[in-house]
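So, who can interpret the following?
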Amino acid sequence: MKVNNELSLNELHTVHLDMMKAFDAFCNEHKIQYFLAYGTLLGAVRHNGFIPWDDDVDILVPRGDFEKLIQFSEINEQYQIVSHSNNQGYYHPFHHANLTDRNTVMVENEMFQQTGKGVYIDIFPLDGVPSETKEQKKYCKKVQLLKALYNITLSHSTAEIKSAKQRIKETLKSICRVFLSEKALYEKLERNGKKYDENNSEFVSCTISMPSIRSYDHYIFRKADFVPTYHAFEGARFVIPKGYDSILSNFYGDYMTPPPEAQRERKHDINYL
C-alpha cells in the first residue's frame, strides 16, 4: 500500500477486505449478528467478492445487535466503531454506524472538504415495519418526510450557484434550517426506527437508508429471508441472508445481469489517502 498517497480502487478493496475480516471475527466473538447488504451482497452472489467497480461496503445488523455493537468504540487499535451515540461531532451524523480505519484519511470531493475519517464500512440497523399494507405505507411515508427534513438540516452546499433556480432552492433550505432542529429530527427518526420490534415483525427494513423521495417498496424485505449463512467472498467467507435471491430481486430486479459497461463506475466522488 502507498504511504500518504491516494489509494487505487484495488488497494481500497484490499483495505475493505481486511476490515471485513476483522469485523466478522469481532462479531463472532461478541455474538453479534450481521449480514452483507446492498451492493456488497450483490457482489458476494454475482462475483464471489467485490463488484469490480464498487467503492464501498454495506452491512446490515438487526436492531438489537446494532445497539449492542455501538456500545463499543473500537474492535482493535486500527479499527474504530463510530456512531452518533458515541461521537456526535463525527462527519455525517446519520443514523447508522461506521467502522473506520485509523491508518487512512478520506477526502470527499462531493463536499469539497477533508472529512478527517478514514476508509469506512457502513453499518445499518435492520428494523421491523408494519405487516399491513396501509400501515406500512403510512409508516414509510413518515420516514421519508422525516429524512427529507433531516437532510435539509445537514445540507450546506459549497458548490458555486450558477442559476436562479439553484439560488431559490438554497434560500428555501436556509429558511427551513432556521425552524428545523437537527437534534430533534434525529431523535424522531431514531424513535420511529425502533417502533416495531424486528424480532416480532413479518417484514423488516433499513428505514434509515430508505430514500426520501423515491419508492420505498424495494427497501421492504421478508424477515424470514434473513437466516444467516456463510458465502465465499474474495477468498474469505462472510454472512449473507439465506433468502438473498428474494432480497436482491426485490432491490435490483435482474441482479445477475451486470449493467452496461458505460454504467460501471464508482458511486462516490471520494479519494482515500
